[in-house]
Amino acid sequence: MARDGQEALDYLLAYHGPCEDRPEVVLLDLKLPLVDGFEVLRQLRANEATRFLPVVILSSSREERDMATCYELGANSYIQKSLDFTKFTESVRQVGQYWLGLNEVPWTCQRA
Fold this sequence. Notes:
Blueprint: H1 5-13, E1 26-28, H2 37-46, E2 55-59, H3 64-73, E3 77-80, H4 85-102
Helix pairs in contact: 1-2
């Protein structure tokens, strides 16, 4: 887990570890220190190695313009975070179940 947007970019854009340890999905908040989530998403989509990496936005923002911007930048999903901890953890569990259990990605490990 990255503590800020710059740390997330440093890790994701420079990842050269074992294929089986490569992230399969990114859960991204918009309100990150240093580099916000919009810029993280923008850079992930601009990079050949991460442009197909699934990115799920988890944000407390209910602003339609934030949601539209995320989809325009290439987000795969936008989920509004619940303030209720139980509901939040359940939504994260369901996100993991779908993106890690059911979703298929259009690349092989050799491309990253």
